[in-house]
Design goal:
The chain is about 80% helix and about 0% strand. It is built from ten helices and no strands. By secondary structure, it is mainly α. The longest helix is centred in the C-terminal third of the chain and has 39 residues. The termini are far apart.
Length: about 230
């Protein structure tokens, strides 16, 4: 059980924390930024190894809308994460300072743009697996099903959606995702904690949206199956 909690809860949480920390480049400076990024990629390798059976099962079973969404999300995340890793290697000035591959501005910009996309897709990925995460958390904490707890969690989800939408605007995430340029940058000389708070609720809000989208797809699939069975 402890291993399941480590692999299903602590490892993903650690990766997401390192990813958010990496976004604070102008606060960390280059050295810590690269160290956090290297640690995140190391955890990613561990995560992929722990979940290698998912790749084996790709050719088995039936694909409904929900499974296609999960597959597309994984492919999308794989592409953006690959771009992030490759550009990290090329522009490294600390961890791989001996290599001195490139200082090309285009590669640096591509690195940043891919990092923002990775943050959003990781949140989508977390949302598609949120039911499993909550099941593991409930088992580890020995929580029994409770209508009151479910109601509180739903209210918390609505709050995260609202805060996430607000923080999305505050951080100018839409501009960053569209490969656009903004003259507004976070001023770390006046505040640091709010930056991490905003990114945390942005990712949490996206995860919540993704989770409920999966629920809707599941319900639609069940309705379609019932309709098909009723016609036969």
């Amino acid at each position: 059980m402890l291993q399941s909690a480590r692999d299903r809860l602590l490892l993903p949480a650690g990766m997401m924390s390192l990813l958010i920390a990496g976004l604070a480049y102008w606060w960390l400076d280059n050295g810590p930024h690269e160290i956090f990024g290297t640690a995140m990629f190391g955890f990613l390798g561990w995560h992929l190894t722990m979940n290698r059976r998912w790749f084996v099962k790709l050719r088995s079973g039936r694909y409904d809308a929900r499974r296609w969404v999960v597959l597309v999300t994984h492919v999308w995340l794989g592409i953006t994460m690959t771009v992030l890793i490759v550009t990290s290697v090329f522009i490294s000035r600390s961890v791989l300072s001996f290599a001195q591959f490139s200082n090309d501005v285009t590669i640096i910009e591509l690195h940043w743009f891919s990092a923002y996309w990775v943050a959003i897709i990781v949140a989508v990925h977390a949302g598609t697996h949120w039911t499993r995460v909550m099941t593991v958390a409930g088992t580890v904490l020995r929580l029994s099903p409770s209508p009151t707890r479910s109601g509180v969690l739903r209210l918390a989800a609505l709050l995260l959606l609202g805060l996430g939408a607000w923080s999305f605007t505050v951080l100018g995430v839409s501009t960053k995702l569209m490969f656009g340029y903004s003259v507004e940058f976070w001023d770390f000389t006046t505040a640091v904690s709010p930056f991490f708070g905003h990114w945390t609720v942005v990712m949490a809000g996206v995860a919540v949206l993704s989770h409920y989208a999966m629920i809707c797809l599941r319900l639609l699939n069940k309705t379609r199956i019932r309709t098909t069975e009723g016609q036969t």
